[in-house]
Amino acid sequence: MSGVGKSALLAELSARGFSTVDTDYGPYTEVVGGERLWREDVMAELLASSGSLFVSGTVRNQVRFRRFVLTWCC
Question: Does the predicted TM-score (pTM) go above 0.90?
C-alpha cells in the first residue's frame, strides 16, 4: 500500500477541517520481532477519545480494531 496517496488524502482532509492521524509518525507503532505493529494500548486510547477521525496506516495488527469503516472507491 505504499505510494497510494494515504498521506495526500490525510493532508486534504485536514485542510478541510477534519481530524486526521497518520500512524506512520508519532507514538502509534512499535517494532516487535522485526515487524512494525500498532501499539494497541495507544491506538485504543486514541480511538476511544476521538469523535470523527480519519486514520491512515497499514500494519498487520490493524484488524484488531474493527471500529474502522473502510471505503474504497474507483
Answer: no
